[in-house]
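User: For documentation purposes, I need each entry recorded in a consistent format: the amino acid sequence on its own, followed directly by the corresponding structure tokens. There are two entries in this batch. Please keep commentary to a minimum and don't merge the entries.

Assistant: Recorded as requested. Entry 1:
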Amino acid sequence: MIVCVCNRVSDRAIDSAVRDGTHSFDLLLDETRLASCCGRCHDCAREVFDAACARHGVTAPAGLPGTARLLALTT
């Protein structure tokens, strides 16, 4: 299923990203450009991301705002 029509991001792409190590929703948004145009897919994308994390046994960290998120990724 296409989750983000604007950027053509599917549920399979989200699942693949989680499987490949994207364990932060904010990072997923940055990497895939989900919800970066109209934003209507944000809630659905979050649900698909959470389900993918559960399926792969990943505990997703809470979203960190802007700079704090970048600092957390580099340390």
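Entry 2:
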Amino acid sequence: MTITCFIRYEIDPFKKDDFVEYARNWGQAIPRCGADLIGYFAPHEGSATTAWGVYNVDSLAAYEAYRARLAADPLGKANYELAREKRFILREDRAFFRLASAPHASPG
């Protein structure tokens, strides 16, 4: 059963460009390390401080293996360090969900 990880970030609104760099780096590292990346989303309208990261994994066990690969990945390590150095992430909350509405009807 596939599960989806939603990461809600509270970011410094004056460091949004740093978050975008962080997101683009994950766009390369996350798929390489084994998760199905849906995307990272930076503020556009409304809140200037809420951002999201969303990806799928096969199971919580697969998630643990993926996280180990990500921590060992050179870009993953560099991205964690970027976040530590620039401190643009003020808070990070991670939750896992399963799709409950499938199967979906076709449009129109």
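Summary note for entry 2:
The CA atoms of residues 13 and 89 lie 10 Å apart.
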